[in-house]
Structure formats: structure tokens, C-alpha cells
Amino acid sequence: MFLPKIIKGNSYTDHRGILYYNNLFNASAIKRMYIIENSSTKAFRGWQGHKVEQRWFSAVQGSFRIKLIKIDDWNSPSKNLVFQEVKLEAKKLDVLHIPQGYVTCIQSIENNSKLLVMADYSVDEIEDEYRYDLNYFYN
Description:
Blueprint: E1 5-7, E2 10-14, E3 17-21, E4 32-36, E5 44-50, E6 55-61, E7 63-70, E8 84-89, E9 95-98, E10 102-108, E11 114-119, E12 130-131
Antiparallel strand pairs: 1-9, 2-3, 4-11, 5-10, 5-12, 6-9, 6-11, 7-8, 7-10
């Protein structure tokens, strides 16, 4: 079983500017990508996730707080499941790998933040989207 993990990025600075990179991230499984930009720092996107699909997140502008929950029963998840919380910042180009079986709740920490999302399935390739009310889980 895979667990969510951060794939560390880095940067290099010289007189020309800054180069952000992530040489440890293997993008070979990626079939599509998109960018999320929340309307404000008070907006939450969640709880949403996938039983089969994987996701990779990377902040390309600003920063995000991402909460993750491993789902125990997709039809009726326990309401008291514990979440993990990860912070992603554009200045690090870290990539957060979300394996199958998780839902997320995404919040921008700074205005105008942008989150790159990469997925290992194309649109409409499988039906695997699960959504739960923002207040569904107790924590």
C-alpha cells in the first residue's frame, strides 16, 4: 500500500534568476493535468477523491494547505477518520503524491495561489470520482 508522500523539489539561484526543479519526480504515469485557483483563502475544495486514480499536486504559485483522508468504505465512510495535513509552497516545487484511496480538502493559504494537479487517468477513462460534504467528517 502506498501512502501520501512529498517528493522534494529544490531551486538554484544565480545572477540570471531562479531555476525551480524536481529531479526526483517521475512523471511517466501522468495522462492529464490541470490547475486549481481557489476564489479566496476562505474557500475549500473538498472532500473529493478517488478509489482508483492517483493524483500529484504541486503549488506553482503561492501556497496551499491540503488535508487527506484514507477512506475506509466508499459508500459510507466513517465520520471520525483522521486526516493528515500537508503544506505545499511554490518556492519549493515539491510534489505531493496522493495514492488511490484518498479524499482531499484543498485551501489556498495566499490569494492568487495556483495548484498544478496531475492524474494517471484521462477524463472519462473510468468513473472514479467521490465527493463528500465539507462537514461530513468530524475532524
